């Protein structure tokens, strides 16, 4: 008889992204795998006494990432600093062609709920959030729903 296969939770490996304005839209773009690994290793190192001063060189030395502030700054030309995120969870809106990373705080909440679902094998739970979003964890594939009524009410105001 084959023993029961227990669900094993494995945390996802984060990838780092930066936000950039393309035409009139803000788009999240991934750092290269090398830059993302370097950012993650620095993030996890905890060796520095002054975390607010940690800077990681990216894009072949053309940009610096201020890890504490989560900003990316061009070194050789004028450009507004852009937001940086350590990403593990993403969503895609109806009108979006790309996936958008959730904020780091929200991603931590989702990861905790996902871990609970995997380790207890309790799926089909509806997670309601104050923003009006509902996320249903049916199985290891997760569904995201936006509350239509909440969006309509905010347009009428």
UniProtKB/TrEMBL annotation:
WWE domain residues: 1-86
Signal peptide limits: none
Any one cellular-component term (Gene Ontology): COPII-coated ER to Golgi transport vesicle
A GO term, aspect molecular function: phospholipase activity
Name recorded for this polypeptide: WWE domain-containing protein
Phylogenetic lineage: Eukaryota, Metazoa, Chordata, Craniata, Vertebrata
